[in-house]
Design brief:
234 residues, mainly beta, 2 domains, six-stranded antiparallel sheet, five-stranded antiparallel sheet, 11 strands, globular
Length: 234
């Protein structure tokens, strides 16, 4: 903070960061035991700082995800086979490749830990998730999230679901980092294929960490949009 103040940066200050990613997910035909292969590829990536006048200033990419491919095998009930996870990424250092391998393996192992729920119109059902996030150079961070989902309506086989959630992030004794926040949004879910079609969500998260100059608090407000559609057959 002292360095920033020496450069005439006045606290608090607000910046708007825009991140865009395009992902392509494909699955293979099921085997006799019901397991199947999956490949997730990042086909486009970009970050930009939105200036007060509305212009966007492109930012350099510190971790190159474009071209990243994550392959793995899932069991019939949707759980990843840990030993099957492989990552492939271009233009990355050996350290970045190792970090991405650890991160993707941890995420794909833990994401299926969401317990399935059945929703009835107007009823709110909670879901609880605990995840451990690997961080290079330190012990993993513990994340907890609780989401309350409510079925609003169903039109032409597509369910509209309202979601409100809270989350917290905690480091160990050696990492003085805490984070907490909440968010809300809606998603459209195809009942027949059991896939999410689109979602819009907003969240506010506060990070607090200790520095040599004192306690640093960062507040973030994010808005995320996702759209999924079947790829055209070649």
């Amino acid at each position: 903070m002292a360095k920033a103040q020496a450069q005439a940066v006045v606290f608090p200050f607000t910046t708007t960061l825009q991140q865009r990613q395009t992902l392509h997910a494909t699955t293979g035909a099921p085997a006799a035991d019901g397991s199947y292969g999956m490949t997730l590829e990042v086909v486009a990536q970009g970050s930009a700082l939105k200036l007060p006048d509305g212009r966007e200033q492109a930012l350099p990419v510190k971790v190159p995800l474009q071209g990243l491919k994550v392959r793995g095998t899932l069991t019939a009930d949707g759980h990843i086979v840990p030993a099957s996870v492989e990552t492939e990424v271009e233009n990355a250092t050996p350290q970045q490749r190792e970090m991405l391998q650890q991160l993707m393996t941890a995420m794909m192992q833990q994401i299926p830990s969401w317990e399935p729920v059945q929703l009835r119109r107007g009823e709110t059902v909670p879901q609880h998730l605990k995840m451990t996030m690997p961080v290079p150079g330190m012990k993993p961070l513990d994340m907890q999230m609780t989401a309350h989902q409510r079925l609003l309506d169903v039109h032409d086989g597509v369910a509209e679901i309202d979601m409100v959630y809270t989350l917290s992030l905690q480091g160990d004794d050696a990492v003085a980092l805490q984070a907490g926040g909440s968010g809300h949004g809606t998603l459209n879910y195809d009942v027949a294929t059991q896939t999410m079609m689109s979602s819009v969500s907003e969240a506010t998260i506060t990070f607090v960490t200790d520095t040599h100059d004192g306690k640093l608090q960062i507040e973030t407000a994010t808005r995320q949009q996702q759209t999924m559609r079947p790829a055209q057959k070649r």
